[in-house]
């Protein structure tokens, strides 16, 4: 969490893997996400709203929760450590 003018806010870190197996990574501050929920709350924004804003073409209904296997954090770390390309996209 980052401290902002109005208190703490979340900095959401997103790792997204496409069907072409391209891994996209980014981060977005809570204040940048338009939401029906109140910003600055201890629980943060609904993750569904964050994902819909960051990756609007994503079909949220296709997502499933990860298993609670110890391998999940290991797999996420491997994805995160893959080579980085500089793709910038800004929302206005």
UniProtKB/TrEMBL annotation:
GO terms for cellular component: cytoplasm. One of its GO terms (biological process) is regulation of small GTPase mediated signal transduction. Transmembrane segments: none annotated. It comes from the Eukaryota. InterPro entries: Rap/Ran-GAP_sf (IPR035974), Rap1_Ran_GAP (IPR050989). One of its GO terms (molecular function) is GTPase activator activity. This is Uncharacterized protein. It comes from Oncorhynchus mykiss (Rainbow trout).
């Amino acid at each position: 969490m980052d401290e902002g003018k109005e208190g703490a806010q979340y900095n959401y870190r997103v790792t997204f893997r496409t069907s072409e197996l391209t891994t996209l990574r980014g981060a977005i501050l809570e204040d940048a996400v338009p939401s029906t929920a109140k910003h600055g709350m201890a629980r943060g924004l609904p993750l569904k709203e964050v994902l819909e804003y960051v990756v609007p073409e994503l079909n949220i209904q296709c997502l499933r929760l990860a298993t609670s296997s110890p391998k999940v954090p290991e797999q996420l770390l491997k994805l995160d450590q893959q080579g980085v390309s500089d793709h910038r996209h800004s929302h206005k």
